[in-house]
């Protein structure tokens, strides 16, 4: 495993080897790199709760590792996290085959850490996470490590037990797949303004205003996993989405909207009778809002969102 026997730069995060019995030192190192480990795990799994569980497993393994032979603890921990995440992703995809209705990434609060432990905010927004679902686990890992964390190709090759040329191909394929469907997003300020205006139009049932905000091929997706009554099929097209939203005017009765920052963008956390009811966000390009995403699966909301 990487980090044993030779030092490997870990994107500027490096520590001295820790004695086998120095648990305090091991804990200090783990704590210092934990945000990075969580950022890797979340981008791989698209689930804050699953990422937390995985990082906890890494901590347990770190405690029982012979740390005296680990030259670069940060590299060792990142490698362990990535390899566990690849295995976990394969299992997660099998579970999603029995998911009731559309599946969406679990939101994560990024108000305190906009890049979620990374050098860049890449592979964090909902649109990017959805596109990454089409990548193979190794393509996804290579893309995340390179594009979000700026790992050298040689180190990614060690992590994936591959070669540098093969890793370059993985990253190239992943970039190509992402670019095929990805649109240039609007600024964070514009995204927040569009979301605010969209919710106001939806609450008032203003169909004309809704259509003006939406891209022609907009898709409305609701994730409830059968626990909340929502559309189990995406609604596609500006007119259809606008009609769908105006038919849901009743939904907004008694709903309080609080703003939050999740996945590097503005989201609206919906409260009803003092409880979190759901979360809505949008992705948008110069053509307008191209995705309206509703997360109303109670487990995803209560586990991952800290309202502003």
UniProtKB/TrEMBL annotation:
<comment type="similarity">
    <text>Belongs to the sigma-70 factor family. ECF subfamily.</text>
</comment>
<dbReference type="InterPro" id="IPR014303">
    <property type="entry name" value="RNA_pol_sigma-70_ECF"/>
</dbReference>
<dbReference type="Pfam" id="PF08281">
    <property type="entry name" value="Sigma70_r4_2"/>
</dbReference>
<dbReference type="GO" id="GO:0003677">
    <property type="term" value="F:DNA binding"/>
</dbReference>
<feature type="domain" description="RNA polymerase sigma factor 70 region 4 type 2">
    <location>
        <begin position="129"/>
        <end position="178"/>
    </location>
</feature>
<keyword id="KW-0731">Sigma factor</keyword>
<protein>
    <submittedName>
        <fullName>RNA polymerase sigma-70 factor</fullName>
    </submittedName>
</protein>
<dbReference type="InterPro" id="IPR013324">
    <property type="entry name" value="RNA_pol_sigma_r3/r4-like"/>
</dbReference>
<dbReference type="InterPro" id="IPR052704">
    <property type="entry name" value="ECF_Sigma-70_Domain"/>
</dbReference>
<keyword id="KW-0805">Transcription regulation</keyword>
<dbReference type="GO" id="GO:0016987">
    <property type="term" value="F:sigma factor activity"/>
</dbReference>
<dbReference type="InterPro" id="IPR013325">
    <property type="entry name" value="RNA_pol_sigma_r2"/>
</dbReference>
<dbReference type="InterPro" id="IPR032710">
    <property type="entry name" value="NTF2-like_dom_sf"/>
</dbReference>
<keyword id="KW-0804">Transcription</keyword>
<comment type="subunit">
    <text>Interacts transiently with the RNA polymerase catalytic core formed by RpoA, RpoB, RpoC and RpoZ (2 alpha, 1 beta, 1 beta' and 1 omega subunit) to form the RNA polymerase holoenzyme that can initiate transcription.</text>
</comment>
<dbReference type="InterPro" id="IPR013249">
    <property type="entry name" value="RNA_pol_sigma70_r4_t2"/>
</dbReference>
<dbReference type="InterPro" id="IPR014284">
    <property type="entry name" value="RNA_pol_sigma-70_dom"/>
</dbReference>
<feature type="domain" description="RNA polymerase sigma-70 region 2">
    <location>
        <begin position="30"/>
        <end position="93"/>
    </location>
</feature>
<dbReference type="InterPro" id="IPR007627">
    <property type="entry name" value="RNA_pol_sigma70_r2"/>
</dbReference>
<dbReference type="Pfam" id="PF04542">
    <property type="entry name" value="Sigma70_r2"/>
</dbReference>
<dbReference type="InterPro" id="IPR036388">
    <property type="entry name" value="WH-like_DNA-bd_sf"/>
</dbReference>
<dbReference type="GO" id="GO:0006352">
    <property type="term" value="P:DNA-templated transcription initiation"/>
</dbReference>
């Amino acid at each position: 495993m990487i980090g044993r026997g030779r030092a490997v730069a870990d994107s500027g995060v490096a520590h001295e080897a820790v004695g086998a019995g120095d648990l305090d030192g091991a804990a200090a190192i783990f704590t210092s790199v934990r945000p990075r480990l969580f950022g890797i795990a979340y981008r791989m799994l698209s689930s804050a709760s699953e990422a937390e569980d995985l990082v906890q497993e890494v901590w347990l393994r770190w405690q029982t590792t012979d740390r005296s032979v680990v030259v670069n603890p940060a590299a060792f921990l990142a490698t362990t996290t990535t390899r566990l995440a690849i295995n976990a992703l394969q299992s997660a995809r099998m579970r999603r085959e029995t998911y009731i209705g559309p599946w969406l990434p679990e939101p994560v609060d990024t108000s305190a850490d906009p890049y979620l432990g990374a050098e860049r905010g890449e592979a964090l927004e909902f649109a990017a996470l959805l596109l990454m679902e089409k990548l193979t686990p190794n393509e996804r890992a290579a893309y995340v490590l390179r594009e979000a964390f700026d790992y050298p190709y040689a180190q990614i090759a060690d992590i994936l037990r591959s070669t540098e040329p093969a890793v370059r191909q993985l990253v190239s394929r992943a970039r190509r797949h992402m670019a095929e469907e990805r649109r240039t997003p609007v600024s964070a300020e514009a995204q927040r303004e569009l979301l605010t205006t969209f919710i106001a139009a939806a609450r008032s049932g203003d169909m004309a205003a809704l259509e003006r905000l939406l891209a022609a091929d907009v898709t409305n997706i609701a994730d409830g996993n059968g626990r909340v009554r929502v559309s189990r099929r995406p609604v596609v097209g500006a007119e259809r989405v606008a009609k769908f939203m105006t038919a849901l005017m009743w939904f907004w009765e008694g709903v309080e909207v609080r703003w939050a920052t999740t996945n590097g963008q503005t989201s609206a956390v919906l409260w009803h009778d003092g409880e979190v009811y759901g979360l809505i966000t949008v992705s948008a390009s110069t053509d307008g809002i191209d995705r309206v995403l509703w997360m109303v699966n109670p487990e995803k909301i209560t586990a991952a969102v800290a309202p502003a």
